[in-house]
Specification:
- Chain A: It is a multi-pass membrane protein.
- Chain A: InterPro entries: ABC3_permease_C, FtsX, FtsX_ECD.
- Chain A: It comes from Candidatus Shapirobacteria bacterium CG06_land_8_20_14_3_00_40_12.
- The structure holds two protein chains of two kinds.
- The two termini of chain A are 22 Å apart.
- By secondary structure, chain A is of the alpha+beta class.
- In chain A, helix 7 runs parallel beside helix 10.
- Chain B is α/β, with parallel strands linked by helices.
- Chain B has a domain of 98 residues: 3-Layer(aba) Sandwich (Rossmann fold).
- A five-stranded parallel sheet of chain B has the order 6-7-8-3-9, with helices on both faces.
- In chain B, strand 4 and strand 5 form a beta hairpin.
- The longest helix of chain B is centred in the last third of the chain and has 18 residues.
- The chains are: A alpha+beta, B alpha/beta.
Chain lengths: 290, 216
């Protein structure tokens, strides 16, 4: 009787236990996949900011044309400047209205007078932005506020770091739970099939021969859990794809390339296989000694 | 396969099941082990099968000295040459009779393509062909005993250990089983060790007899 046939028989004979094991592993892999996709999206967002260094200098109200020109001239003296754009109050209003065109409540009360004019400066070298920020921070009569991407990058870095750390902890914890689940279920099955194991051993079966179906069963749960968890996660992300990509535009938060998903599916199947194998190997070593 | 017991004793805690037993069974012998209940017949079978470890003495089966069989690997290899008819059948309850026999054949690495035809032959031999797809719980005591015999015969063993194989059979079926074992012994030269308390079989077959009384 082939090992696969024996394994399938074990699985068929206790459907509830198997369903429990596969379900727990699926939940674990669902959360693991969500963390992976979230981390990828945040990394893309971070890269977008890091590769497009920019600083915005908001100006005080009532500055005359000469002052504005002198600010622009001063900005032009810094090295590695890519572009300097002046955003007038009127242009700021146009941008504001465009951003909030779907929400008339936010636009009807706003006039150009309450929005500040600003200079948007992009550079080839992000280090120069720090120098500009320090230089203009002292000009309190001209400058109202400076928004430097370093702050955004810093907070994004913090968030990405939190997501990564939470992800690593969650993945470790969930992998451990998956391990325990497979360990307990396979342990129960070994106990239930003790007579069969004893009989097989008396007929000359090696310890590995009787362990094989249990090892395969652990692997089966790992792979089924990984595929199911990944599929649900992918489905959820693909469903949310238009919303997420529109929200984070121009960053592509949910990646379109199938290679990326295939890579993670394969990795998770491998992880599931290892967790299932390790758990069933540990438990069969513990219970099948004779 | 020859079997040698040299001053073998077996104790379970304070209870001595076998005490200083010595005998030699040559390849191709048919030997009865007789004795009252509790005399140590089943322990003797378990010792040959290495189901239990001996306390003192020496056992050599098929040239393998049990004291020198350090790894389970060697014990497994030896067990694959032994066909056992257990007193309590030891059939796997959620496998059909056919699957039980197939499992035994799979364990001894029998050619998978030949397994079905081999099962056909042995089931015909024990007259259980029409029960092959039934589970052990659907069979009578006598049928279970014959299914157990079919599993033992299927691997073409060098040694058959039969622990009270006639215990659950009526006299006709019991005689048929004895005749079958005798036939296998004579035609294939298989060594057979059979425990029984039916002395009429022992007397009529005129084979070697080991008599046990309170473990001696």
């Amino acid at each position: 009787m082939k090992t696969f046939t024996r394994t399938w028989r074990h699985i068929r004979r206790s459907p509830i236990q198997n369903l429990m094991a596969s379900f727990t592993l699926s939940i674990s892999f669902l959360v693991i996949t969500l963390f992976i996709f979230l981390n990828t999206g945040l990394t893309a967002l971070l890269n977008n900011f890091e590769t497009k260094p920019e600083i915005t200098i908001f100006l005080k109200d009532g500055l005359d044309k000469a002052t504005l020109e002198s600010v622009q001239k001063e900005l032009g003296t810094f090295p590695d400047i890519k572009e300097i754009r002046f955003i007038s109050k009127e242009k700021a209003l146009t941008i504001y209205k465009e951003l909030n065109k779907n929400n008339p409540l936010l636009t009807e009360m706003v006039t150009s007078s309450i929005l500040p004019a600003s200079f948007e400066v992009s550079a080839y070298n992000p280090k120069v932005l720090e120098v500009i920020a320090q230089s203009f921070a002292a000009k309190s009569t001209i400058v109202d506020e400076i928004i430097y991407q370093k702050d955004i990058i810093q907070s994004l870095l913090i968030w990405t770091d939190i997501v990564r750390k939470t992800g690593v902890i969650s993945i470790s914890l969930l992998s451990f739970i998956a391990f325990i689940m497979v360990f307990v279920i396979i342990g129960l099955k070994i106990t239930n099939r003790k007579d069969e194991i004893n009989i097989s051993r008396l007929l000359g079966a090696s310890a590995f021969y009787v362990k094989k179906p249990f090892l395969l069963e652990g692997i089966f749960h790992g792979i089924v859990g990984a595929i199911t968890g990944f599929s649900f996660s992918l489905g959820l992300f693909l469903y949310l794809k238009p919303i997420l990509n529109r929200f984070f535009d121009p960053v592509i938060f949910v990646r379109p390339d199938p290679g990326y998903y295939l890579f993670w599916l394969s990795s998770e199947i491998l992880l599931g296989l290892l967790v299932g194998l390790f758990a069933s190997w540990t438990v069969s070593r513990r219970y099948i000694k004779w | 396969m020859d079997v040698v017991f040299d001053s073998v004793s077996k104790s379970y805690g304070p209870i001595t099941a076998l005490k200083e037993i010595s005998f030699e069974i040559k390849k191709g012998d048919f030997v009865f082990v007789v004795g009252a209940s509790g005399s140590g017949k089943s322990t003797l079978i378990k010792l040959i099968l290495r189901q239990v470890k001996l306390s003192t003495g020496r056992i050599i089966v098929g040239g393998s000295d049990y004291l020198k069989l350090k790894s389970f690997h060697n014990i497994d290899k030896l067990r694959r040459k032994i066909g056992v008819i257990f007193q309590d059948f030891q059939l796997i309850s959620d496998l059909t009779i056919e699957e039980n026999i197939a499992l035994g054949l799979d364990i001894v690495n029998f050619d998978p393509h030949l397994i079905p035809s081999n099962i056909d032959v042995v089931l015909k031999k024990v007259k259980l062909s029409n029960r092959r797809f039934l589970f052990p719980s659907q069979l009578s005591g006598g049928e279970l005993q014959r299914a157990c015999l079919a599993r033992a015969l299927s691997i073409d063993p060098e040694l058959i250990l039969a622990d009270e194989p006639t215990g659950n059979l009526d006299s006709v079926n019991a005689w048929n089983l004895i005749k079958l074992l005798k036939d296998i012994n004579e035609k294939q030269g298989t060594t057979i060790i059979m425990t029984t308390h039916h002395l009429d079989f022992v007397k009529s077959l005129e084979k070697n007899v080991i008599t046990l009384s309170k473990g001696s």
